[in-house]
Amino acid sequence: MKYWIITTLFAILILSKGIGQGIEEIDGDGIAALLQKYNDTTYVINFWATWCSPCVKEIDFFEELHTSSRDSKIKVILVSLDFPNQVEQSLIPFLEKKEISAPVMLMTDLDYNSWIERVDKSWSGAIPATLIYNKEQRVFLEQELTLDELFENVNQIMN
Fold first, then answer.
1. Which of 63, 90, 103, 135 qualifies as a FRET site for 43, CA 20 to 30 Å off?
2. Tell me: the pLDDT tens digits for 4-35?
3. pLDDT of 41-97, one tens digit each?
4. How many CB atoms lie within 10 A of CB 83?
5. C-alpha to C-alpha distance for 134 and 36, rounded to whole angstroms
6. Residue 102: domain span
């Protein structure tokens, strides 16, 4: 009995470590609402997936931006385009391994053509893709970013 209780508590701690905030589901209407937040915050929204090699390569940069900007008016949101049936098998283990603490949303609307244009009319649908915006400026980047490019684009939008 003791072993079962200890094992259960250990499992709860492990599962809550990397993604303690949980993975919120989002659909096309949710994306539209996310893109209409015009306040004093700069939003950095990265569209990515665990099966996308360039996305995986740059994900640590978004986590670094998230971690370094906790006390500022920058909000990093990672929108995963992983398939909903792959959350337990791929997405959660990936987030735990990478120790991602930035908010993660799972796109549940698999009719990509119905919402991609809401993000940016120029978006072909390729990932990684990043939207950085605030109430005054907006930039959309359909490319893999380096750490310097990510921080430079955020700084340009904020200034």
1. 90
2. 343 333 333 333 333 334 899 999 999 999 99
3. 999 999 999 999 999 999 999 999 999 998 899 999 999 999 999 999 999 999 999
4. 17
5. 9
6. 2-158
pTM of this structure = 0.84
Q: Which two tokens stand for residue 125?
A: 């649908």
Contact call for residues 127 and 46 (beta carbons, < 8 A): no
Q: Supply the Cα-derived Rg of the chain in whole angstroms.
A: 17
Q: Count how many domains the chain has.
A: 1
Cβ contacts of 81 within 8 Å, gap of 6 or more: 47, 48, 49, 52, 107, 112, 127
Q: Which residue has the tokens 């959350």?
A: 87
Burial of 69 (0-12, 13-18, 19+ CB in 10 A): middle
CA count, 13 A, side-chain hemisphere, 113: 0
* Residue environment code for 39-56, b if the CB has 16+ CB neighbours within 10 A, otherwise e: eeebbbbbbbbbebeebe
Amino acid making up residue 44: V
CATH number at residue 52: 3.40.30.10
Contact 134, 42 (CB under 8 A): yes
Go through the chain and tell me how many residues it has. Answer: 159
Tokens 């209407």 -> residue: 29
